[in-house]
Amino acid sequence: MDRRNFFKLMSLAGLAAVSPTVFAGRRPGAFKNPNLPPLAETYGGPLWVFLNAGGGWDPTSLCDPKGGKGPEDPEAMNHAFTTDQIEAAGNIRYPNIGTEENPTAYQTFFQKHYKRLRVINGLDMQSNGHDSGSRHCWSGRLAEGYPSLAALIAAVHGHALPMSYLSFGGYDDTQGQVARTRSGNTGALARIAYPDRANPEDEASLFHSSVAGDLIRKAQEARKERLLATEQLPRVQNAVGNMYASRTGSNELKKLQQYLPAELDNGPNPLRRQIQVALAAFRAGITISINLDIGGFDTHGDHDANHIPRLVNILDGLDFLWTEADMQGIGDNFVVLCGSDFGRTPGYNDTNGKDHWAITSLMMMGKGIKGDKVIGGSDERHNAVNWDPGTLKQSDSGIHIEPRHLHANLRGLAGIDGHELMKQYPIAIEKGDAMNLLA
């Protein structure tokens, strides 16, 4: 069967939940055995969560706090708080602010989670463009052509899983190395899992009688076997299996439905619903890495009123993730990274907004990451400063911390730095410039 006819057959078969990039995988041996056991038996973790603050967040209003002398201070970095409102939880500094609905949001989060939190401040994105900044943050490379770290982890550790990489948005380029699932609609997932039901929640609402259903399944299985008999390439055979899984209902998706809560959170914070799906996918053993995404941070006007509530949503989402994960018994096997395209300018523009700024921060939590730690920093106007790579102490002869330094460390933490796939996507760090940002 040639490539064109194969894709045509897939389209006719209704393949919607399996990304077409699964057929473009270039890693040798990636699909040799499509019948490997589930994640719990093949991968010990950790499970990876990447939370993207889309639009460019303002770390000077979060984990690299810089206030002002008062509301009339013309040089104030932020009007939402003064310098005497900056507090500390352990070694982590934060402004003691919140929203009208949750005035102690920052204090509650940082006091509760500082022992598991590591902050990288003064991170130089070398760009103030949305696409390039987001790509740099999540792939470790400013230029195009690299998959996200989440995709690389899924490609190495989860290639046997049909939903190893689940994304709600943000930079999720795979470069064809792994299938990506981009569906946060749990209703759609339910219909894919139970295509033979008029109502996915009702076991009795079948389109066909049991006799007709058996005949249909036998015919589908026979056709699949005929297709498999004509193909020799393991990755094409795996693709055929995925095609029929999407047509007949996937056992993995059925497991996901079983782990989802009876009612998803319908509150104002969209991260909570994404997190509920993520935890269900992790517990079902069908997902290794996931992108969470929340936008609205590109606040060129009325910065404080628009930006701070979204930062509160991030803190609420992170707290919700850890609380739920701990309750479900999987909280000790996560790595969570929270970052953004870039930062916001020091001070305000003529519309009380803040524009794009290349210097930002990143927050990390979870397995293998020592908490209550701040690495790097910025000066009083949020300019990056130089750090000695070996000692991580401020030094005029040092260098800026960049995403590549962090990604080199994270690849090691994920256990993928020695994999042959990394030769295709190397992290360029000159001798003597390597930084251990996880020590």
TrEMBL record:
<dbReference type="InterPro" id="IPR010869">
    <property type="entry name" value="DUF1501"/>
</dbReference>
<keyword id="KW-0732">Signal</keyword>
<feature type="signal peptide">
    <location>
        <begin position="1"/>
        <end position="24"/>
    </location>
</feature>
<protein>
    <submittedName>
        <fullName>DUF1501 domain-containing protein</fullName>
    </submittedName>
</protein>
<dbReference type="Pfam" id="PF07394">
    <property type="entry name" value="DUF1501"/>
</dbReference>
